[in-house]
Structures are given as structure tokens and as C-alpha cells.
Design brief:
Elements (H helix, E strand, L loop, with lengths): L11 H11 L1 H9 L6 H20 L1 H4 L2 H27 L8 H7 L3 H20 L2 H4 L7 H37 L9 E3 L4 E3 L2 E3 L2 H14 L3 H8 L4 H16 L3 H18 L1 E3 L5 E3 H6 L24 E3 L2 E3 L1 H14 L4 H12 L9
Antiparallel strand pairs: 1-4, 2-3, 4-5, 6-7
Length: 362
Amino acid sequence: QALSSVYAADDLATVLFYVQTAALLEIVHAALGLVRSPVFVTTLQVGSRIAALFAITHSPESQVQFGAGMMILSWALVEVPRYLFYVFAIISGDATKKTPFPLFWLRYSLFAVLYPTGITGELTVFLAAAKDSVFLNTYGEQYAQAMYYFIMSFPVIYAPGALPMIMNMAGNRRSAFKKRFAKPPPPPRGIVFPVTGTKGSEEVRSSTPTAKEIVAAAVEVANPNKAEKCRNERNWRFGYLKHLLGLVEEQCKSAQTALDVANAGMDKAYDTFQFIYPDGKAVSLREAMSKPAAAKFHTGYVKGEAAKPDKVLQIPYKGKTLSGEALKAQVRKWVEYGTIEPSAGDAIIQCADSPNYLDLSD
């Protein structure tokens, strides 16, 4: 009785209509890449709610059965914590680790109960609307049959579609909890990429701006125009190749140009990359290499006591151990097939014919 009267609450129908219709923006955001949500799953989830909203808005019979209240309460209990979670994520700058844990837990746990109840409620709304003459005649009696097949298509879609939605959320939950309680990475040590920005309070060391600057500095000594185009490249991940080709083109003009370009690139790399000492002090790689090492290195000597193996080249292959003529025959097949280069095949055969090559002792 209580669930059947939920839709009749004051102003609830109007608020429900506008709030759920606004959820269409989630599909737009996913399609534009503004959020990392998968477009298909988001469309399935939001689209099903819009269909249920359409059904309950135009079907008086679906409004007064228990599933309507179950659906509405499930939506509210899922969405209110979810959007509150998003608010704290924006404020804190880190949705994974800096949002309040109770809210984090609700965001990634409520679905286990509320998705099944919400889906059940939506199904009852669809089925009730399919039997409601008011709904079926929304656009006239001539379209009643089309409306019936339209609304009954959703229960058919739900059969294969509900489980992937729930499994997607289960996967998101595992991933989010794993990141939340992951051990922080060790502090950087030794040679590292330079700091290129910050994410919240954490330093970001991206390879993209570093590589772009090194390539630009290298080609600049031969062709400043190419260097400018390199620095202005917006899609470095997929556009770097043409800049590397341009660099090689300049190097091919003369031996001196090749050396000048290479030296300029190395100089930029030495000045750009950092070396971090155990105490956390960061200096350029050039500065670190110019100072004597604090640690001393020593040469050790390890002498084995086992008997020397037979001086026969053996290669395990498909459960067998090939050697001698069998090995050389297989190597020739690899060369013929193009599996290995001819020079590699010649080297293997030479080792097979020269047992002394296998003796690495002094």
C-alpha cells in the first residue's frame, strides 16, 4: 500500500520528470569524453529510465502499483549518494582517495541491492503500462498496437541488458576499492622524468612534454620551423612520428648536421632529466653526472664449482631439444619462413659448428 502511493506524493511527479530527463546529459558527457563512463552502458542505464519515466507519466495504472514506489525509491537512494559523491570529488580533487569513506562505500555498494529492486520496479511499470488502455491510446487508438510493442520491447531488452549493468558496477567497485587502499608508490629515486605539472597535491612526471622538448631542441639547430611545429603539436601520442621523420631528414643532409642534431638532443636531455638523491634532493642529470659518486663500486669474483656442460648448442623447441643437424635444419626453416633474419640464422649455425664459442670461461 505504501509503495503504491509513492508517485502520488505532492509535486513528486514533476520533480521526477525534470530530474530524470536531465540525466540525458550523462549520455552526452560520456559521448563527448567529459567523463570516463562507457557510452553503451550509460545509454542503456539512462535510456531505460527515460522509457520507464515515459511509461509511468502516461499510465495511471502503472502509477498505483507497488513497483512504481520501488522504482522511484531505488532511483533516489542510488542517485542522491552518487551525486553527493561527485560533489565531494570535485571539492577534494580526488574521487578515489579523498572523498569521505562512508560516501565512497555507499557510491560503490548500494547498487548491489538497489539495481535489482530498481530493475524489478521498472519491469512492473512496463508491464502495467502495456495493459493500460490510457497509455496505449496516448497518441490515438490507431497507434495502440505500436505502443504495446514499444513498451513490451523493454522487458525483452532487460533480459540480456540487466546483468551487464550490474557486472559493470561490480567491476567498478573492485577497481575503486583497489585504488582506494593501494599502497602509495615509493618516492622517485635516481634518473627520472622532470615534473611537468601537478594533480591535486601530487607531482606529475609526464613523458609527453619532455619528449616534445627534446625532439624540438634537437631539430632546432638544423631547422627552427620544424622545431616550432614540434612544440605546437597537440596530439603528440599519435603525431610524434612525423616530427621524428623530420628530424632524421635533417640529419641525413650531412654528417656534421647529424652530429649537431644528436648533440643538441643529448644536451637538452641532460638538462631536462632529473637525478634524485636518496635524501630527496633533485638536480639535473648534467649536474649529477658532473659530481663524483658518493658510493664506491667494487669488482667481485664468483667461481663456479660444477662440472662444465657439454660444448653443444641446444635449443628447446616444441617439447624437443634441438642440436646439431636437426637444429641447423630448423634454423634454415625459420630463415625461409621469415621468422628470423638471415644474419641471425647464420650466427646460430656458426655457434652450432663452433663448440668453443660456448666456453665463456677465461
